[in-house]
Amino acid sequence: MVSPLQVGAKAPLFTLPDQNNNPVSLADFIGKKKVLIYFYPKAMTPGCTVQAQELRNHKDDFDKLDTVILGISPDEVKRLDKFCQRDELNFTLLSDVDHKVAEDFGVWGLKKFMGREYDGIHRLSFLVGLDGTIETLFDKFKTKDHHQVVLDSIK
Hints:
The protein is α/β, with parallel strands linked by helices. The chain is built from five helices and nine strands. The protein has helices spanning 46-57, 59-64, 77-87, 100-104, 146-154, and strands at residues 15-17, 23-25, 34-39, 67-73, 92-95, 108-113, 116-121, 125-128, 134-138. The longest helix is centred in the first third of the chain and has 12 residues, at 46-57. The radius of gyration is 14 Å and the shape is globular.
């Protein structure tokens, strides 16, 4: 059972490598922009691809709302780079190989898929406000509608 951070909680600060192996820190955005942190299970899988493509297609809308997109998964940097190139992604993907950040946000836990149980990332997103607190928790959406649910919430 996962217990994600709730609205009003301080977002845990982190620094993770992006798809180009450059360090990206949440602290760099606090006080400057809102941040959509979306956790997804695995790069280049069907649901994660649809979700990423829709965010890509609507990045201008996020830019107009001063909101940065950070996608986090337990994938290696190399796989993230391949995902970005293959799908021409125009936002930052971060590698959380040891899933520490996912645990800090409460999105790492037991999953069931096709009769199998295993630990993994639950597909949840957080909107972090300028003050570094969680403004919105997104836990009910379809991958193809995720971008719109988030944009509607920010507006």
